[in-house]
């Protein structure tokens, strides 16, 4: 059996468990979209690249599950814009631009809509993905869900420690400085950019294509580096769990990173679901209390669905308010700075504290959130 056939069977089993009420055509369309147009060449790739692709597919599938599958198109679009608009660094750049532009009444969401529309119109990768989605399914609702997932995953790819969307915004800004900002009527979908911007782009076609080719090459190189780092951290964390917690904890981590639900993991490991949830909390505790103090805390907690920037430490809105009220001013400042992308070292310097003090404080914060979750 080829690797492509093996992965297809694994995803078929996954989707049958997660969405038994969906038609077989829908599930097969999702599988085809996930594996991509060139999935038959998987066997020719080196093992480390195969593993990177596998992690990427799991990440995509989780995005589809969380925000877009079985969601009305209008709500899916709002989810996408809200998700991208929550990028702190992008919001700061857009606000600065709006403040210094001729049209100071615009909102961040208006500018963000134009950037996304511009990407859909001109980005070669997204154009290829749109064509591939059209080959995978004729279902309009499913096509929208797959497209929104593709756009989010692509926009959030890390490039030199910043989301790719930030660089696309800078490129958009350069091309639109003379044309200014276009108006998007409230309550309507994104409109076409001004003629002046389009004519400017036509005049600079060669330069833009060259810049895009360079950018895509740099994006790919950085993406591969990031994936290698993730695999390294994963291997180290698994070794830590085997030596310091329980071999079954390492097995839980592997299954979880494959995108399996807690119920599916319980079936795989033949354990009660309550024990699986306790196991997740135990892994989460050790990830924050010990392991991630030496590694990247946001990386491991994002795997566990309890990261600060992605999941608000695993708390819903009501629990987050309860958690926030329980914090002291110093702890709130640490959270705000972490959300802004500052490292623990930078925070320690800013607050005139030792790094170990900040690490202990962050551990306390996370464990407080864990107690509230439980």
Number of strands: 2
Proportion of beta-strand residues: under 5%
Could you tell me how far the N terminus lies from the C terminus, measured between alpha carbons in angstroms? 43 Å
Mean pLDDT reading: 76
Detail the poorly predicted runs: 178-184, 189-211
* Helix share, percent: over 70%
Question: Helix count?
Answer: 20
Structural category is mainly alpha
Which strand order does the major sheet show? 1-2
Rough outline? globular
Give a quick account of the main beta sheet: strands, pairing sense, barrel closure. Answer: 2 strands, antiparallel
Order of helices and strands: HHHHHHHHEEHHHHHHHHHHHH
Radius of gyration: 22 Å
Can you give a write-up of this model?
- This protein is mainly alpha-helical and 374 residues long.
- It contains 20 helices and 2 strands.
- It has helices at residues 3-18, 24-35, 47-68, 73-85, 88-100, 108-122, 124-136, 140-155, 164-176, 195-203, 205-244, 247-257, 262-269, 273-289, 297-304, 308-311, 317-325, 329-339, 344-350, 355-373; strands at residues 158-159, 162-163.
- Strands 1-2 form a two-stranded antiparallel ribbon.
- Helix 7 packs antiparallel against helix 8.
- The two termini are 43 Å apart.
- The model is unreliable at 178-184 and 189-211 (pLDDT under 50).
């Amino acid at each position: 059996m080829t690797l492509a056939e093996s992965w297809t069977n694994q995803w078929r089993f996954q989707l049958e468990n997660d969405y038994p009420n969906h038609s077989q055509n829908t599930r097969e369309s999702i599988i085809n979209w996930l594996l991509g147009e060139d999935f038959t060449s998987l066997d020719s790739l080196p093992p480390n690249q195969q593993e990177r692709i596998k992690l990427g597919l799991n990440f995509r599938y989780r995005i589809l599950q969380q925000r877009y599958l079985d969601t009305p198109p209008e709500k899916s679009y709002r989810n996408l814009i809200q998700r991208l608009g929550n990028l702190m660094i992008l919001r700061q750049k857009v606000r600065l631009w709006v403040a210094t532009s001729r049209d100071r009444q615009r909102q961040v969401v208006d500018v963000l809509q134009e950037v996304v529309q511009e990407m859909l119109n001109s980005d070669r990768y997204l154009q290829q993905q749109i064509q591939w989605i059209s080959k995978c399914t004729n279902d309009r609702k499913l096509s929208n869900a797959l497209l929104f997932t593709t756009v989010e995953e692509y926009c959030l790819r890390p490039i030199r420690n910043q989301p790719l969307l930030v660089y696309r915004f800078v490129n958009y800004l350069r091309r639109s400085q003379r044309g200014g900002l276009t108006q998007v009527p409230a309550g309507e979908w994104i409109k076409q950019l001004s003629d002046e911007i389009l004519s400017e782009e036509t005049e600079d076609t060669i330069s833009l294509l060259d810049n895009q080719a360079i950018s895509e090459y740099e994006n790919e190189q950085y993406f591969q580096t990031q994936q290698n780092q993730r695999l390294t951290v994963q291997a180290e964390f698994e070794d830590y769990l085997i030596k310091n917690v329980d071999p079954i904890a390492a097995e839980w981590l592997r299954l979880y990173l494959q995108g399996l639900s807690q119920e599916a993991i319980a079936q795989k490991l033949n354990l009660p679901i309550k024990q699986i949830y306790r196991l997740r909390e135990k892994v989460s505790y050790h990830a924050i209390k010990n392991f991630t103090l030496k590694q990247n805390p946001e990386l491991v907690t994002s795997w566990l669905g309890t990261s600060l920037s992605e999941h608000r430490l695993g708390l819903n809105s009501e629990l987050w308010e309860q958690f926030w009220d329980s914090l002291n001013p110093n702890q709130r400042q640490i959270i705000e700075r972490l959300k802004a992308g500052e490292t623990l070292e930078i925070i320690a310097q800013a607050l005139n504290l030792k790094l170990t003090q900040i690490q202990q404080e962050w551990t306390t914060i996370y464990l407080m959130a864990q107690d509230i979750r439980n």
